[in-house]
Write a structure and sequence with these properties.
single chain, mainly alpha, 2 domains, 4 helices, about 0% strand
């Protein structure tokens, strides 16, 4: 469920709403700024996924998934396994009860 856009933040005169700076640096969450951030992120993701992996980087690693945006099955599985291991490590020392 999408959250409704927040009120427009007061920005310096030279920073327009809908820009990445307004969203990231000034924390504006108006509809324009949220749309601008979504579009930027979509372009960034597309660009990362279109780049081939450098020859030294292997598929099936968390590094390829996170750094290079590879979404092949092997890289997804590696990221999933890494996240599960990290979750277990963080939660193993919690007090039970």
């Amino acid at each position: 469920m999408a959250t409704p856009p927040g009120p427009k933040a007061r920005l310096p005169m030279h920073i327009p709403h809908g820009s990445l700076v307004a969203y990231k640096k000034y924390g504006c969450r108006c509809a324009e700024c949220r749309r601008g951030e979504r579009e930027y992120h979509a372009r960034w993701t597309r660009r990362k996924q279109e780049q081939p992996l450098p020859p030294k980087i292997k598929h099936g690693t968390r590094y390829a998934y996170v750094t290079y945006g590879c979404r092949c099955g092997d890289c997804r599985e590696a990221k999933k396994a890494s996240d599960a291991q990290m979750y277990r490590r963080r939660h193993q020392n919690r007090d039970v009860g």
